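ESCALATION

Customer reports they have been waiting on this structure for their group meeting. Please prioritize. Original submission:
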Amino acid sequence: TFENITEDSLYVLIDKEQFIRALTNLMKNAEQSIPENRIGKIIIQAKKRSNTIEIKISDNGSGIPIENYQQIFTPKFTTKNSGTGLGLAMVRNSINAFNGSIDFKSELGVGTTFTIKLPSAD
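Update from on-call: job pushed to the front of the queue and completed.
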């Protein structure tokens, strides 16, 4: 599911390629978290809040177990059978390099929302 961004302008100063890799990684993780027997739903939202651009990527996947919360951005941590476990660590490093932040909220069996906050350039 895609929702239209109604803001007239959302400007940030970032490395485009690095940011695309970060967003692609988050969307790939969202897709992979959705069980095969569930119709997948990924929602991407962006809005401006005072001097901050907030981007949310939500899914209706399996969710993240609370015991993994502290490790989720740790390099080489993975719960998948394949992969390096570097994806979310890279995402966080990229967002931090843009003077931003990333966090998440998750509920087992319901899904996860990652929230990126970046300083607005306007």
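Sent to customer with the following note: The mean pLDDT is 87.
Escalation resolved.
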